[in-house]
Amino acid sequence: xxxxxxxxxxxxxxxxxxxxxxxxxxxxxxxxxxxxxxxxxxxxxxxxxxxxxxxxxxxxxxxxxxxxxxxxxxxxxxxxxxxxxxxxxxxxxxxxxxxxxxxxxxxxxxxxxxxxxxxxxxxxxxxxxxxxxxxxxxxxxxxxxxxxxxxxxxxxxxxxxxxxxxxxxxxxxxxxxxxxxxxxxxxxxxxxxxxxxxxxxxxxxxxxxxxxxxxxxxxxxxxxxxxxxxxxxxxxxxxxxxxxxxxxxxxxxxxxxxxxxxxxxxxxxxxxxxxxxxxxxxxxxxxxxxxxxxxxxxxxxxxxxxxxxxxxxxxxxxxxxxxxxxxxxxxxxxxxxxxxxxxxxxxxxxxxxxxxxxxxxxxxxxxxxx
Amino acid sequence: xxxxxxxxxxxxxxxxxxxxxxxxxxxxxxxxxxxxxxxxxxxxxxxxxxxxxxxxxxxxxxxxxxxxxxxxxxxxxxxxxxxxxxxxxxxxxxxxxxxxxxxxxxxxxxxxxxxxxxxxxxxxxxxxxxxxxxxxxxxxxxxxxxxxxxxxxxxxxxxxxxxxxxxxxxxxxxxxxxxxxxxxxxxxxxxxxxxxxxxxxxxxxxxxxxxxxxxxxxxxxxxxxxxxxxxxxxxxxxxxxxxxxxxxxxxxxxxxxxxxxxxxxxxxxxxxxxxxxxxxxxxxxxxxxxxxxxxxxxxxxxxxxxxxxxxxxxxxxxxxxxxxxxxxxxxxxxxxxxxxxxxxxxxxxxxxxxxxxxxxxxxxxxxxxxxxxxxxxxxxxxxxxxxxx
Lengths: 370, 389
Fold this sequence. Notes:
The complex is a heterodimer of chains A (370) and B (389).
Chain A: H1 8-25, H2 29-35, H3 40-49, H4 69-82, H5 84-91, H6 94-103, H7 106-112, E1 125-127, E2 143-147, E3 150-161, E4 168-174, E5 184-190, E6 196-199, E7 213-223, H8 237-269, E8 271-272, E9 275-276, H9 281-310, H10 315-340, H11 342-345, H12 351-363
Parallel strand pairs in A: 1-4
Antiparallel strand pairs in A: 2-3, 3-7, 4-5, 6-7, 8-9
Chain B: H1 8-33, H2 51-55, H3 66-80, H4 92-100, H5 103-109, E1 114-117, E2 133-137, E3 140-151, E4 158-164, E5 174-180, E6 186-191, E7 202-213, H6 231-267, H7 283-310, H8 316-341, H9 352-359, H10 369-381
Parallel strand pairs in B: 1-4
Antiparallel strand pairs in B: 2-3, 3-7, 4-5, 6-7
Helix pairs in contact in B: 1-3, 3-6, 3-7, 4-6, 6-7, 6-8, 6-9, 7-8, 8-9, 8-10
C-alpha cells in the first residue's frame, strides 16, 4: 500500500529528535564550527537519549528499538536540520553498531554491543574512505587477504570518525575478488592492534569541522576469523553501503530544509528598491525550488529506506536518492548564500557554513548508518 | 508504516493496463499522422479489456487509497499511449460539474461528455483575465467571447464555458456555464494542430450572442461576492486533483520512454549497472541515472499529493509540486532518453520521439511550470497574488 503514514512510535521519535535539534544543536553549531570542536557534554546527552544506539537489542543491554531505516531517516533529517556537522559526530558510532546488529554473529554481538550500552558516549568509527581521488566503495584499495584462519589487512583509510578516542573501528576492505559491493568485507579492529597507525591529528576539512576525523594506516594488520564481521558468513556489502548512503542523504535533507526555512523569512524582511526581495520572482522561484526539492529528496530517501526495511534490493533506489540529493543539496545551500547576498558570505550568518557542510557531506559517501 | 509498494491485485490491474497499452500503441502512430481523424468510440479490441473496470472494485487487503491508485493507474494507462481503446465518458468539464454543480445539474449532465473552455486568445494561466462575458437577459444568459485550446472540444457533447458577469469584479465575477453543442451562437471555429497529443482533439469556439437557459449556470449562484474566490475557487479546486492527474498522464510517456531505452540498451549489450561508482560510470550511465531520478521524484510527488487527498488533507501546495516536478520530468527525462538513443531516436521507427512530443504538453497545460512555482512561492511566503505577481 502506497502510504506516507508514520507509526505512532515514529511520530514520537521524530518529535524528540526535532526538540533535540532545536534545543541542543542549532544554537551551538556556529561556535563548534569556529572552534573545530564538539562539547563532550553534547555527545553524552545525545548518547543518553539513545540516538545512535537505540536499536541495540535488550539481550545485549540495549533499548531494543525496532531496527528501521525509515525511522533512522526521520531522525537524521531532524538532526541534520539542527547541524549536519554535530549530527555526523553524534551518530558516528551508529556505523559501527548498526552493522554489528545486522551482520554480527551472536558471539560478536555479545562481545561488542554491551560496550555501547553505557551512559556515557562511546566513540567508534567506520573506516571507509581512502586517499584516492577516484575512491569508489565498490572498488576499494584496502585489501583483506585470507591467511590460514586469519585475515591480513593492508591499506590507508581517511576521514575516519573519532580516530583519537575510539576503542574499535569497523574497517571495510575489498576481498580481492574484483570490484563490486558484494566483495566488501568488514573487520572489527581494536585501536591497539599491531600494524595499525592512527594519525591522531584531526583532518582539516572545509566543512563538518566540529566532527573529529582521522587517518588510519593499516600495515599487515592481522585479524582473527572472529574479528571478521559475520565470521564465515561475512556481510551484505550492498546493504551496509546503502544504509550509509541513505543516512547521509537524510542529513542532507535536513540541512537543505534549514537553508530553506532560514531563507524564507530573510527574503521577506530584506528590502531592496522599496520592496522585500521575496516579492521578486527571481528570489521567490529560488525559494519555491528549495521547498519543492526538499520534499522531493525526502521521498527518494524514504523510498530507499523503506526498501532497506523490507529487505529487498535497494541499490537502485539508493543510487537515485544519493545522486539527486547530492545535486539538490549543494544547489539549495548555494542558493541560500545567494539569497542572503553579502550576508551569505559573512560568518555572522549560517549560510556560508551550510554551504561548506553541504559540499562536504555530498562529497562523502557517509560515515553514519541508517 | 511508510510503504511504496502495491499489492498483487493492484499489480494485476497494472499488468492488464499495460496489455491494453500495447494494443493502443498499434494505433498510436496512425492517429498521430492523421491528426484530424477522430478515433472510433471503441476499437475492436476494446471488449478484451472491459474486465479491467471490474478489477478496480476489489483491490484486496492493504490496498492503496482510491486517489493514489486512480492516479497511478492513469499513469500506467498512458504508458501505452494517449489514445484509449474506449472513448472516455468524462472530460475536464465533468470535473467542474462535480466540483461546482447542484445535485440537479449533476443528474442532468452527469452522463454527458463536457469539455472545459477556460483559455482565451488573451489569457491562459492568468485565468482571472477572462474576457468572455455573460449577461442575463430575462431567463437566459447571453454569452459573447472566444475560447481556444478546448480539450475534447470536438468530441464533447457540451462545453463548460468560463465567463465573467462583471469584469471589474475580478475573480469573483467569473462563473461557469454549460453550453450544449448545437446551441445557436456557439460555433467551433478551428481544430488546433499540435506538436503532440494529436489524438486528443483540441478546438476553438466563438460565442456570438449565444443564448442559454438561466439554469445552465453551474452552481446557480448569480451573486458576485465582494471578497473571496466565489466560483473561481471551484475552478481552482478542480485543479487540486487534476494537477497530479495531469502530471501522471505525462509521466506515463516518460515511463514508456524509460522502459524502451533500458530494453534497447540491454539488447545491444549495454546493460545498466546500478552499483558502478561515479568514476566508472559512462556519460550515458549518468544520463540514465538522472532520467530515472527525475521520473522517480515526479512519481513520488504524485503519490504524495494524491495520498494527502485520500487522507482528506489539504494538498494545494503538493498538487502544484507534483505538477511542477511532473512537468520537469516530462521535459528532462524524455530528452535524456532520446539523447541516449542517438540518431535513431528521432526516427518514427519507434514511438519515443512521439512520447517526447506528447509529454512536452505537461509543463504547459493545466498551469505552466512557472505558474506552479508562483503558487508554491505564494504559499510558502504567505503572499497573495497581489504580493507576488
